[in-house]
Amino acid sequence: MSIRTIIRRIGLVTAIAGTTVVLASPAHAATNFFRINNFNSRLALTAESANEGTRVVQAAANQFNLRQQWSIKTNTGTAALTYVMRQKITAKNGALVDGCLDLPRDVDRPQQLAGEVIVVRPCDGSNSQKWLDVNTNSSTGTVNLENKLSLMKIDIDNNKPTAPGAVAIQNDVAQTSQRFFRAFVASA
Any signal peptide, and if so, which residues (predicted)? Predict the structure, then answer.
């Protein structure tokens, strides 16, 4: 058998194997992105836009909405997690950067106010972007997300906790609307 024939056969086998891998791959494989869903409303935390400082609201789950898909960044020396939005945001200087779930103001704990709206800002590693899973309920798979700086939990506007478009706020009073769970997103 000539070397040319061997090379052709190897090429054919490689092409068939590659086609098999592509066709056998699941159409909706899991990703490392997830939605943060409110347990009461079943709606997902969603950035209103992809601009720095945009408010976080709850909206119906949509696998194509990258502003409601998050990944976790761990932080050395702490159990606190940083939630990074899948879609890049436009910073005030016009640059496209990673956006993180954040408090609206970088002020010390005593100046943090209950009821302030949660926002997405450029990821900077600050404590206002670090969240602890607290009050974990293993039977429902839910957690409260407590901010490391303010020590307040993410909540949904208490006037309409199950309504689409209701804003996510920080709250220092325990509410049932503070329970969240992570739902992994299938790839499109």
Answer: 1-29
